[in-house]
Write a structure and sequence with these properties.
The protein contains 3 helices and 4 strands; from the N terminus they run E-E-E-E-H-H-H. It has about 100 residues and is of the alpha+beta class. It has one domain (about 15-90). The longest helix has 17 residues, at about 80-95. It starts with 19 loop residues before the first strand and ends with a helix. Bound molecules: zinc ion. Zinc ion (ZN) binds near residues 33 and 35.
Amino acid sequence: MENNTVCQSCSMPLDNVALRGTEMDGSPSGDYCKYCYQYGAFTHPGWALNDMKAHLTRMMDKEKMPEDILEAAINRLSHLKRWTNNNVDTDLHKQDGF
Ligand SMILES: [Zn+2]
């Protein structure tokens, strides 16, 4: 199991195991937080990257987070595993053609 230090969906820090999501068997997820991922499934499976950005903006606004922290979190999102899967698929196709 990989152990990422931030949620690979919303970029929330995962240093506390209580914040980790759960796999289908109830074990802690190595990738996602409990708000994004429970029992092996995303809690918002239909969300695109833009939906997550809007969600983060709303949450941090409510918490009165400084704007630079919000910006850093938003920038980080596009590098997370959940939002880069499409790129991986494209790379595989390229390899097939080669
Ligand atoms: Zn998350």
